[in-house]
Amino acid sequence: MRVLLVDDEKELVEALAERLGIRGIEAHWETTGDAALKRIGEEAFDLAILDVKIPGISGIDLQRKMKVKCPDLKFMFLTGHGSQDDFAAGSSETGEDYYLLKPVHIDELMEKMKKLMSE
Amino acid sequence: MNHRSDGETGTGLQFFGKMTASISHEIKNVMAIINESAGLLEDYTIMAEKGVPIDPEKLKAVSQRVSKQIRRADGITRNMNSLAHSVDDFHKSVGLRETLELSVGLSLRLADMKSVKLDLQLPQDPVTIITSPFHLLNLLWQVVDFAMGASGGGKTLRFTYETGPDSVKIRVTGLETLSNLSEDAFPTEKEKALLQTLGGAIFLDAKAREIQIVLPKDLRQKSTDN
Q1: What is the dihedral of CA B190, B155, B33, B63, to 10 degrees?
Q2: What value of ipTM does the predicted structure carry?
Q3: Which of A7, A33, B78, B128 has CB 3.0 to 4.6 Å from A51, enough for a Cys bridge?
């Protein structure tokens, strides 16, 4: 499974990518929406895990743009935002199960990723 | 604190809510990084127990990452504490430099989200004014929020101040598209109410692409004059 993590917190995605790597997941990361869009145009990914708030673009808008480029790509949100509006917007795109709040336990994340990929 | 109308209280609560939501988001990010760093240490421990050699540099990198996030969290909570205590007194002597540093510190993440840089270019000489700290922070945020939308392609707002005999002038420059906006775009009723409370005034200079905020050095004196 190839995963793209998109979050402006570089140290978070670096650490998370390494932890996923230890668990056999090939995880890459980007810190801006533009870089993420470019990356999925150049490489194939199975899953993208996005923050809801990214500089210059909302995670929801980024997901829509990524979906146009890669219709088969699956999505999850991992965010620090817990507002009802953000949850409603994000979970309507991915389903409530795949809208996770930071900090998340790695086992829960792995479980959700496997579940999503099996759907 | 006193001297507040219902409308003013609503504006103040909106500002307080905006800032605390931004602060809580940042703290969540800090916690998430520390969480993953602790998780990595756990992963390394399990690997070591299985006989996989661990590069000491990796442990050092995780330790440095945690220390950096602790310093970051300390800065965030200091700002939050200063914001919380800004409502303690209606009239208080505050350092202009410290107030602008706090205002920019509180606005940084929100500016990041709009890809706008906030740059402080403040004089070394300390200047103190007697004002309402909470209302001043609120006004500064309203100015920053407006200025971010008018920063155009430059995307950098610079803050400085100068002092006169009875007043101080805060200048926010870098509003590249200010001349494209109608004259009544800013200040709105919200900012006008804050200016009235603070005894100040705002001037827009489209040619210089800047906003000037003029405040009395002693709000108590201004209140007496009025």
Answers
A1: -130
A2: 0.91
A3: A7
| B157: three-class secondary structure by DSSP | strand
pTM of the predicted protein model: 0.88
Tally Cβ neighbours within 10 Å of residue B79: 20
Neighbouring-strand partners of residue B160: B171
Could you tell me how many CB contacts below 8 A there are between chain A and chain B?
Answer: 62
Q: Are B121 and B160 in contact (CB under 8 A)?
A: yes
Please give the average per-residue pLDDT across B158-179, as a whole number: 93
For residues B118 and B159, the answer to whether their CB atoms sit within 8 Å is yes
B69 touches chain A (CB under 8 A): yes
Distances (CA, A) of B75 to B69, B78, B79, B112: 10, 5, 6, 17
A15 touches chain B (CB under 8 A): yes
Which chain A residues are closer than 8 Å to B55 by Cβ?
none
Compare CB distances from B29 to A55, A80, A104 and report the shortest one's residue.
Answer: A80
Q: Would you say A19 and A78 are in contact if contact means Cβ atoms under 8 Å apart?
A: no
Residue with tokens 């007697």: B130
For chain A, give the secondary structure using H, E and C. CEEEEECCCHHHHHHHHHHHHHCCCEEEEECCHHHHHHHHHHCCCCEEEECCEECCEEHHHHHHHHHHHCCCCEEEEEECCCCHHHHHHHHHHHCHHHEEECCCCHHHHHHHHHHHHHC
Reported as a single tens digit per residue, the pLDDT across B194-210 is: 999 999 999 999 899 99
| pLDDT at residue B133 tops 60 | yes
Q: Which residues pair with residue A77 across a beta bridge?
A: A50, A99
